[in-house]
Amino acid sequence: MPVNPLANRLHHVGITVDDMERAIRFWTDLTGGTASEVRKLDAPHLAALTGYPDVVLEVSMVEVSAALTIELVRYHSESAEPYDPGTAHAGNVHICFDVEDMSASWDRAVRCGAVPVGDGPVVLTAGPQAGGKIAYLRAVDGVTIELRAMPA
Predict the structure, then answer these.
(1) Band of residue 62 on the pLDDT scale cut at 50, 70, 90
(2) Torsion angle in degrees (nearest 10) through CA of 42, 48, 52, 57
(3) Does position 1 have pLDDT exceeding 80, yes or no?
(4) Whole-number mean pLDDT of the chain?
(5) pLDDT average, residue stretch 50-73
(6) Please, which residues have CB within 8 angstroms of residue 75's CB and are 6 or more apart in sequence?
(7) Span 14-43, pLDDT tens digits
């Protein structure tokens, strides 16, 4: 069987943001991660890379753990179109966290500014994960956060 060249370590998850300061505050408060200083990127290769001829980027990396880094990117471009966030839209991203305490995790996400999608966590009533709980909340900039607490 051929070796998959992508089956290594995930380097980062990138999230496009509208307000860098707000996004940094949200993601560091939620995850307890540490954000790097915001860098402004204005290089000739960015137009070819992103498809936006006039783009300038602001970037900050939120180091959550050795296995998870969240890259926050703010595009400054006259040619960029606004995006309608929502889980059903192609290209929408959700980040799933396995949690031990659903109630505490839900409360923390809401305190940090996430907006619940439903009335609360959904309890799984059948199947191999019966008794587990799953919840969706919308973070700033439309990213969906999934919280998942499964029985032992």
Answers:
(1) very high
(2) -30
(3) no
(4) 86
(5) 91
(6) 16, 50, 52, 55, 57
(7) 898 889 999 999 999 999 999 999 999 998
DSSP summary character for residue 28: H
* pLDDT for the residue numbered 77: 82
The DSSP line for 52-83 is -TT-EEEEEEEEEETTEEEEEEEEE-TTPPP-
Domains along the chain with CATH numbers = 13-76 (3.10.180.10), 94-149 (3.10.180.10)
Supply 23's token pair: 């996004």
Q: What CA–CA distance (Å, rounded) separates 116 from 71?
A: 23
Of 91, 113, 105, 111, residue with least CA distance to 135: 105
CA distance 105 to 123: 15
| Three-state secondary structure call for residue 35 | strand
